Amino acid sequence: MKNIFHKMNFRKPALAGFLLLTFLLTANAYSQTGWYLSSSAQLSGGQFLSDSYTRVLSVYGTIRYQGDDFGITASIPLVNSNGNSVSQSNGMMVQSGPSITITTQNNMNFGIGDLYSYFDYKIYSDFENDIDVYLNAQVKIPTASSMLNFGTGKTDYGGSISARKSFGSFIGFVDLGYLDIGDPDGIIYKNPFTYGIGIGKFFNYGEYSLLLYYSGYTKILDDNGAPQQISLGANYRASETIILSFIGSAGLGDLMPDYTSSIGVRIKL
């Protein structure tokens, strides 16, 4: 059990949004160097900053290279939405610009979302006390359609430091970071500090696992509350190369989805 937990790399959900929570549960749980492919389907819904209810279905394709002490990941989604008043940014739903036309719930839009890239590097490891510390970085490249307002059209970037410690079959972790959100025309967002704290539990020598995670941002708009989210996830190791993930989240504040649910698979090549 100790060897399994020692190699786990818990990375930043609050910084990189819901997508990184999937990696938080799956990446490096049974770490081996090499290439990994992941895919997940995510459904989110909320009223956000408009009078209509927005539902967003995202299907992510992800590739990752895992080294001994570092990982590099790139991910991009296909997005289907029933409205274009808001766009996704690091797990939040933010206004795409000052002049937004609210669409009806029957108007479905489909297109490519923003490209996210992540890098994590282990800067400290204490094998005797089962403590690991990581530096994390991310960049969002604005590849989403500006016509459909699936993105702000601006680059986001951020960094964080995270630590994890094992306690037998339990694992605890904390994360602190900073995010620079690109401002669309006519809107100025406050760049938030980010934070997260969680606990995980492994069963049957790592075949199954559960994770409870609370994450949040400081305010990005004066008139709206600070975004926060609580998530519960489960993993099943179907084989030595395949891990299945199931995640559900509830958001607090106008800028977080009321709910998010996701199912995903990770395959080692």
What fold name stands as the CATH topology? Porin
Q: Note the run of SSEs as H and E.
A: HHHEEEEEEEEEEEEEEE
Question: What is the rounded distance between the termini?
Answer: 24 Å
For the record, the CATH class is Mainly Beta
Shape: globular
Second rung of CATH, namely the architecture: Beta Barrel
What is the β-strand count? 15
Radius of gyration: 18 Å
The level of helicity is under 10%
The low-confidence parts are 1-29, 99-105
Domain count: the total is 1
Fold blueprint:
Blueprint (H helix, E strand, L loop, with lengths): L1 H5 L6 H4 L1 H9 L7 E13 L7 E13 L3 E12 L4 E4 L2 E4 L13 E4 L2 E12 L4 E11 L14 E12 L2 E11 L12 E11 L4 E10 L10 E10 L4 E11 L6 E10 L1
Antiparallel strand pairs: 1-2, 1-15, 2-3, 3-6, 3-7, 4-5, 7-8, 8-9, 9-10, 10-11, 11-12, 12-13, 13-14, 14-15
Give your account of this protein's structure.
With 269 residues, the protein is mainly beta. It has a single domain, classed as monomeric porin ompg (Porin, Beta Barrel). It is 7% helix and 55% strand. It contains three helices and 15 strands. The chain has a twelve-stranded antiparallel beta barrel. The two termini are 24 Å apart.
